[in-house]
Every structure is written in C-alpha cells, then in structure tokens.
Design brief:
Layout (H helix, E strand, L loop, with lengths): L7 H4 L12 H13 L6 E4 L7 E9 L5 E9 L6 E6 L15 H4 L3 E5 L35 H18 L3 E11 L1 H12 L3 E7 L6 H7 L5 H10 L4 H9 L3 H5 L6 E6 L7 H10 L4 E6 L11 H13 L1
Parallel strand pairs: 4-5, 4-6, 6-7, 7-8, 8-9
Antiparallel strand pairs: 1-2, 2-3, 3-5
Pfam family, one: AXE1
GO molecular function: carboxylic ester hydrolase activity
GO biological process, one term: polysaccharide metabolic process
C-alpha cells in the first residue's frame, strides 16, 4: 500500500481536539476502585517450559470484578533481582501464547509478565464467568452501546491490575515497571500509562483503540471495520457508539500519561492509520520519542524495533 493518510509534515503537528465524556476521570476512578475491592491474590507457579536459562512461572491474578487472569512470568535464571519488569500486552485476537515466544526480555536481563487477553487467544482467560469460548473478532463492538458493559472496560481493568501483579512479584523492582505492546497491545499499554502512576516507561507500537472516529472514516481494514459495519447496521445509534468509545480512546489516555514513552508508527499502516497514532503521540503528556517507519504497514519496525527499545530503556533506566 502506498501512502494514504496525511503528509508527514502535517502528521507531525496533527493534534486534533480531544472528544471525551465529562465524567471520563470519574468513570475510571470508579471502575478501578471497584476492581481494587477484590484481593489481587497473585499466584506464581513454577512451569517447566524446557528453557534451562529462564525461570518460567504460570501467573494468575484477579482482574475485573475479581475474575482470574492468566499470564506468564519469565525471568533470567542466573540474574539476581530485583529486576525491571516489562508488562507485555497482546495484539487483537491473540493470547499469552507459549513461554518460548517471549524470550527477548529475559535474554536482555528483564523480567516479563505476559498478560492474557480475556476472551481472546486460546481461552486461558474467559471474558465472563461461564463463557470460556474465545473468539478472534467481534470484541471491538461487544457492549459498545454502554460504557459500563463495553468489553474494553474489562480488558483495561485487567491490564491495570497486571501492573500491580508484576509489582507484587519478589523478583521485580516495583519502581521499574514498563508497559509494552503493539497494535491492540500498544493501545492497552497506552491506556495503562494514563491510568496507573506506577508505570516507569511505556513502549507503544502502532497503537490500536485510538482516535476511533477518524480510523473508521479513513480505513476499511479490520478490526476498525467492525465498528464501521456496526454503525452501518445501527444507523440511529452512531453517536451513542462514539460516546461509549470516548471513555476508551487512546488519545484521552495519552493526555493523562506522564511516564516516558517510546512510540512507533508506520506510514503505510492501513490497520492503525498513522494519523490516529500521531493524534495520541502529539497529545501524550509525558516525555516521548517516536520511531517512524516510512515504508511499512502494520508490521511496523518488526525485528528492527526491539534493538531501539532495548537501547532506549537502557539509557532511561541507567
């Protein structure tokens, strides 16, 4: 795909007016206060992943409404703690996967907590009690007519609690917790950076769940097409949809985030269009840097991005 969004010169200054409900902060205070009423109960059980140089644990903690969330905890076997810890969030449709998929961070001397996405992946974390069948798409519109019932209220709450679970691990330095992810994972990391003050840094790649209305207007790629299709069917509820999405828009979380952030964007990305990423980046309230990949689509920097992140974190945490 060729360039399709705004020219780079305009993207660099693209800072649209934020549209958010008046009770945005009250909504999230109430949501997270309700979650905090439930004991976190972090559990870390040794897991034999056949990885001699890496300690692997099956992790569980209480997320939204006390519902148990699955994760993997990995740490280098021969490095003494307390370690900086990356809380890793997953792209749309995926789950925590297998431990051997997450060796980058322990190889670099970090711990990593790989957080399952409720209702996605292979079903290790059900979305709702009694509903243990995962799904690959359709979650973007699940409950979208009511912010109290919207799927991402539950998922973002899990993600905030995941930071608490990482901080509770005896091998983790709670002052050096990094949130990270790409696509949906980047959108989740962006939201947590705006909601949790214990986050030390954020690695936000090609964030999904950001500047929703523009995304639905300029791309017909999935998953944003799910929203467009829903609005096409529910013609009389379009403003109701976008009012709900205002509580979950990455632009609004970015404006509240203060931890240093390293973003990345791909200028030919039709899945998470560049203007939606720049909208959040240009509103981001904390120190920030941006890596631009001019000729790439939703793969972004791919294998070129981790060395940039490792160097950035090394300098930040030194």
């Amino acid at each position: 795909m060729a360039l399709f969004d705004l020219p780079l010169a305009e993207l660099l200054t693209y800072r649209p007016e934020r549209v958010e409900p008046d009770d945005f902060d009250a909504f999230w205070r109430a949501t997270l206060s309700d979650a905090a009423r439930h004991e976190l109960k972090p559990e870390f059980t040794p897991y034999d992943a056949l990885l001699a140089r890496v300690r692997v644990q099956d992790a569980r903690f209480s997320g939204y409404e006390g519902q148990r969330v699955a994760a993997w905890f990995l740490a280098p076997a021969e490095v003494a703690g307390p370690l900086p810890c990356v809380v890793q969030f997953i792209g749309y449709g995926g789950g925590r996967g297998q431990p051997h998929e997450w060796l980058l961070w322990p190889a670099a001397g970090y711990a990593v907590l790989v957080v399952d996405s409720r209702g996605q992946g292979n079903g290790d974390t059900p979305d709702l009690p009694g509903d243990d069948t995962p799904q690959h798409s359709g979650l973007l519109t699940r409950g979208v007519l009511d912010p109290e019932q919207y799927y991402y209220r539950r998922l973002f709450t899990d993600a905030v609690r995941a930071v608490d679970a990482a901080a509770a691990h005896p091998d983790v330095d709670p002052t050096r917790i990094i949130v990270a992810g790409a696509s949906q994972g980047g959108g989740i990391a962006q939201a947590v950076a705006g909601l949790h003050r214990q986050v030390r840094a954020a690695l936000i790649d090609l964030p999904f769940l950001t500047h929703f209305r523009r995304a639905t207007e300029i791309t017909d790629a999935h998953p944003y097409q799910e929203l467009a299709d829903f609005c096409a069917t529910n013609r009389d509820r379009i403003e109701q949809v976008f009012r709900t999405l205002g509580y979950f828009d990455g632009v609004n979380f970015a404006a509240r985030a203060t931890a240093p952030a390293l973003y990345s964007v791909a200028l030919m990305d039709d899945v998470c269009p560049p203007s939606t990423v720049f909208a959040a980046y240009n509103h981001y309230a904390g120190p920030k840097e941006l890596q631009i990949w001019p000729y790439n689509r939703h793969e972004g920097g791919a294998t070129f991005q981790p060395p940039i992140q490792l160097r950035w974190l090394r300098d930040l945490l030194a």
